[in-house]
Structure formats: C-alpha cells, structure tokens
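Board work, copied verbatim: DNA-binding IclR family transcriptional regulator
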Amino acid sequence: MDRAITLLELLADRGEAAVGELAAALAVHHSTALRLLGALAEHGLVEQVGDRGTYRLGFALIPLAGRVAERLEVTTHTHPVCEELAARLGETVTIAIPDRGHAVNVDQARGPSMVTAHNWLGRLTPLHNTSTGKVLLAAAGAADPDALATALAPGTRLSRPALRALATELAQVQAHGYAWALEEYEPGLHAIAAPIHDPDGAVIAALSVSGPSYRLPAERIAEITPDVIAAAREISHRIDLHRQ
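↓ predict structure ↓
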C-alpha cells in the first residue's frame, strides 16, 4: 500500500512517467512496479498513455478529490468569489492551502479565455517560487534562511543567497499583503496571490490569479492586485460570518 501511494504521488508530481522510471524511484524491480500500476489501473486511479509505456493519474481520482474538497470549509466560501473574479478578470483563479511543504490547490475557477488555461485543481506546487506558496510561507513565520530551509518541501535545494533573498521577499509579502511570481514556477506564467484569514486572523489559504505573461504582464498584475486582495478579504469575511 505504501508503494502504491508513493506511485500516485510520483505521478502527481511528474505528470507522466515510464514504468522503469517509477521502478527506479521506488527502488523495486520493473515487474513489481508494473504489478502495482496494473492494480491501480484496474480501479481507474492510473492509466496508460497510449502505447508509449508511460502512465499518468486516472480520472477515478476526481470524485475522490471532490469528496475531500467538500470537507474543506474554505472551499464552501471560496467558489462563488472565485467564479466572479475569474469572469471579471478573464484569468484562472485558484485557492491553495499548505500541505507538507507544498501548496495544494483545492478550488479553481477559469476565466472565459481557453488559451493557455492550466488545470491546477489537486496539484501540489512549491512554496518558494509560486505566489500562493509565498503567501503561505510568509504566514508560517519562516523569516530567516535556516527556518526557510526547514519549512520547504524535502528535496528543495536553494543556495544560502537564494534563501536570504527569499526571506527578504517574504518580509515584503507580510508587509504588503500579497505576493507575485513572474515566470518563477513556469516560463511564461505570471501570478499574484493574497492571503485568506480565519476569524482569529490566521492565514488558512491563499487566493491567486494566474495566466500567461503576455496577458498578465507586470503592469496588468499591478492593476489587478487590489482586486485579488479584495476577493481574498471577501472570502475571509464570509468565513467569519459563517462561524459567528
């Protein structure tokens, strides 16, 4: 079971992977990895990509993920706000929460443009080079390089100068209440995020707007920053009202 779960996590991280690649990552024989993949494929949790001998996650995970999302209180209050913001700005809006050194996207609304539209739902993304990740990392209080190195996901390799620069940026995120990521996570992808707070003031999630750099240049990011902050505050307000 542990190996099967690890296979799902590897495919979630890599998108697609060959049997040999997965076997090497698990440190098991090729035939063992193939048997595990076969069992997962029978339940629709993974699927083979054509005849290339590679695998990816299967559609049977979608209803499972949906049931998890239903239990997340934050998604109850986020989706109407995300839908309105996505329609108004014409870009993808996502909600992410922290998960073991990553940001996991638990809600999403797409704008009317279908060009270069990412499906972020359920994806784990890094904390150090995404807008939502920076917001969540700043809220965690990792203000110095040593604390940052511990807060990041295992395997994240940043030099001391990079950690110092990130700590400086996170201080600005805390001060200004938002974070940008301009082609840091993917070439040609820009994003901005703002924190969502619970009634006690703790940051429990981050709302982001992302899109291709040609539609969201730095100037456009600056223009929509107040909208993103306002949407995150509206969700925080709805959570506050719900708990009263």
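The chain is about 50% helix and 20% strand.
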